[in-house]
Amino acid sequence: MTTTTGQSATTDRDPPEDLRDLLSRVERAGDGGDTAQVHLRDVVGELGQASFAPFILLPGLILLVPGIGDLPGVPVTMGALVVLSASQLLVHRHDLWLPDWLGRRSIERRKLKKSLSWMRPVAKLLDRVTRPRLTGIVRGAGVGLMLISCILIATATPVMEIVPLLANIAGAALVGFGLALFARDGVLALLAFALLGACVAWLLWLF
């Protein structure tokens, strides 16, 4: 089993069982390789073909992490990942494809573990409250509308570099959409649409 950037990431791994399992797989990414850095291609290889919804969800979680999500360059990188994941899912690709430049992006393993430690209590709570509900919203046209919304949020990431709190609100919306797709939870999809509306309202109020 191999994962190559600039190509489809194909593996035979089963999808993560829940959000905590997803975070555990992210922590294992790159084990046995460079101990100082974890590359995005390693994370894709660990998650395999289940990468589409998780790679909408994970950028949202990262944007919510204090001291990480608002660092210069982080919103734009996360936005690029969301655009690639959502657009490929929108056209019904089976395997996630990443360009080389994005696959080579990395984070210090120490910072990654710190971020994951912050995310785990949130993941535990979300795993308790999410379940398949209003599943008609997370099918067909509803999925398409969610993916287009994620792309719109992601393309606004350059603005998030300069507008206070916008990255955090957008991150929460991405978490909602990603988790709605991941858990087939239509209630979360509705909440995510509400957060998207809050992003738009915040921008209109500022400008």
Total number of distinct structural domains: 1
As residue ranges, the low-confidence spans are 1-5
- Radius of gyration (CA) equals 16 Å
Strand content: under 5%
Strands across the major sheet, in which order? 1-3
Overview features:
207 residues; mainly alpha; two-stranded antiparallel sheet; two-stranded antiparallel ribbon; 5% strand
Topology:
Layout: E1 8-9, H1 19-28, E2 37-39, H2 40-47, H3 54-64, H4 74-90, E3 96-97, H5 100-103, E4 106-108, H6 109-129, H7 140-155, H8 157-160, H9 166-183, H10 186-206
Antiparallel strand pairs: 1-3, 2-4
Helix pairs in contact: 1-6, 3-4, 3-9, 4-7, 7-9, 9-10
Brief synopsis:
By secondary structure, the protein is mainly α. The protein has helices spanning 19-28, 40-47, 54-64, 74-90, 100-103, 109-129, 140-155, 157-160, 166-183, 186-206; strands spanning 8-9, 37-39, 96-97, 106-108.
